[in-house]
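OP here, attaching both records as promised.
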Amino acid sequence: MTNELITEGKFKYAEAGEGPAIIILHGLMGALSNFGSTYDYFSKNGYKVLIPELPLYSLPLLKTNVKNLAKFLKEFMEFKEIESAILLGNSLGGHIALYFTKHYPEKVSGLVLTGSSGLYENSMGDSYPKRGDRGYVTKKAQDVFYDPAIATEELIDDVYVVINDRNSLIRTLAIAKSAIRHNMAKDLPEMKQQTCLIWGKQDKVTPPEAANDFHKLLPNSELFWIDKCGHAAMMERPEEFNEILQNWLISKKLA
């Protein structure tokens, strides 16, 4: 999928299928390919699926925050002439979807959050990434999953490249701090969109209590658990994730 990205103007994205739009928003360390199974499944089952590459490392440092990433999403939708879309976000991507929904509710026909930040996260724990520390990167990558074997050497290499580059490391930390500043707890009760929460029971980054709090605060939410699963359910348990999401979309008449 990532070999087939379309570049138009300042946007780089993947797009496939026809039907209601689903826009997928990846996380801070998440590659577009993390959503490969979901992208393939829904683009072949009645949806237009788009995954924009978020400008995490190319915005000016002072604009590297959740607010401007949500602005980027608005510009992308306008560029693609999409009036409204189902937003599907993991981790930081979920946070961007929530911030966008707060400011542009008419553009969001439904929300799907999996391991979303916005209330609480433990992505850095009590430490910060150290350049050149591959052991740190390996441990953090493995902690994302219930099964640490999913953190392949290739995946660890990708994260290591980000951490070891001064420009991307500074922006990674800026976005992480921005996510903490933009806590959404007070805003969630005002979001009336139908919302699907799909959470790994063993998520260490945005733990189960975060999912329960999202469910309590979002008035039209449903919460689905996937067992033996960590922070990236769409990667670790893709078939179960896709089945839950498809059934929910049908039940909410978003198909």
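Record two, same layout:
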Amino acid sequence: MDVDAYSSVITVEVNGTAHTLTVDHRRVLLDLLREDLGLTGTKKGCDQGQCGACTVLVDGRRMNSCLLPAVALDGSAVTTVEGLADGDGLHPLQRAFLDRDAFQCGYCTPGQLCSAVGAIAEAEAGHPSHVTGADVPAGRPVPLTRDEIRERLSGNLCRCGAYPHIVDAVEDVLT
């Protein structure tokens, strides 16, 4: 692996598989996923971290991959939309999105799915959101009401306006 002053060798686990790569210091995770690893499920939307189309899970936390320098992820575990499924079986959220018709064009769907998986985990871990009531004890699981779901997914834009169906799909996996 050729390393120069502008690159480093990193090892990152993506969807359960370790990859050792020489990465240019300016390369972001989104480009590494799409161009180097051929995982095109993660979408490039705004390239500024505002639309959420590029959302993936890094060590279980949702992140905008268009903003993350790949070199900073050495030793991290990344899950993309391709890694949500269990073999040939869909992740429950993927199934719920299909059942609820929670997409139209589908461009935002991979980011919506990864964000929803992360949001559910954050609520279960007791991380409050802007709309979490003061009556929820600190560190206790946060009940995911429709308002909580909307708030937690507000960083993911859907130009088609499938928001009500997306919230329905998330609710379906919670019950």
